Amino acid sequence: MKVDGRCHCGQITYEAIVDPKKVRLCHCTDCQMLTGSVYRVTVPAPRKTFVLRSGEPRIYVKTADSGTKRAHAFCPKCGTPIYSAAVSDPPTYSLRVGCLAQRRELRPTRQQWCRSALAWAMNLEGVPQTSGQ
Q1: Considering the entire predicted model, what is its pTM?
Q2: What are the C-alpha distances in Å from 100 to residues 17, 59, 88, 128?
């Protein structure tokens, strides 16, 4: 599936080919902190299909408890997280689904790090809804 994405301010734009069956939702505490939310939703894009169309993301390198380093790319102007990848020679880019124009079509197929999940984030069924602000 071809996808295109951008940061909130539009400075960074990109496109890629992804497999919609590989959308993942992560509840780990690092993802909670790095998104400022309760989880992160990503889809991998093979390096050969990822094309940065405009802008240059800023990179933050995070070191996991395991010692693995991961490059997190974000817009230097608006701060929107764009992707994460290996620090050097990445085979894939983990695209942030919320930045993709096709996000409605990219439903998670698996959740991980559920032991870190906030209990209330696992079921929002009873929370009142409104269609706008």
Answers
A1: 0.91
A2: 12, 19, 24, 27
